[in-house]
């Protein structure tokens, strides 16, 4: 899928349990003969990597190019905060 879009040379970044090479923390160390269940593959094109989702991994949304705090201000005549809509 990403190869057809020209992203086949991006590095792959994978997060999983730190206790095992498998996806199961109970299988300590370097177990063998396991299958790593990848439930989805996503791309962070702006950051420059592809990441498979293993198990019940939660992800965070990306941030905008221009942070929203630039649009927040205080109206000095009323003392009200503006730009939080």
UniProtKB/TrEMBL annotation:
Quick check: keyword GTP-binding in the entry?
no
SUPFAM superfamilies xref list: P-loop containing nucleoside triphosphate hydrolases (SSF52540)
Q: Which InterPro entries match?
A: Formate_THF_ligase, P-loop_NTPase
Q: EC class of this enzyme?
A: ligase
What domain of life is recorded for the organism? Eukaryota
One GO MF term on file is: ATP binding
Kindly state a single biological-process term from the GO annotations of this entry.
one-carbon metabolic process
What pathway does the UniProt record associate with this protein?
One-carbon metabolism; tetrahydrofolate interconversion
E.C. number(s) listed in UniProt: 6.3.4.3
- Record key words, sorted: ATP-binding, Ligase, Nucleotide-binding, One-carbon metabolism
Its recorded name reads: formate--tetrahydrofolate ligase
Organism equals Nicotiana sylvestris
Gene behind the chain: LOC104227961
């Amino acid at each position: 899928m990403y190869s057809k879009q020209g992203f086949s040379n991006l590095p792959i970044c994978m997060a999983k349990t730190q206790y095992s090479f498998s996806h199961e923390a109970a299988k300590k160390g370097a177990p063998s003969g396991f299958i790593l269940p990848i439930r989805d593959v996503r791309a962070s094109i702006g950051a420059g990597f592809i990441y498979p989702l293993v198990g019940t991994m939660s992800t965070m949304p990306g941030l905008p190019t221009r942070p929203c705090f630039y649009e927040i201000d205080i109206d000095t005549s009323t003392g009200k905060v503006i730009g939080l809509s």
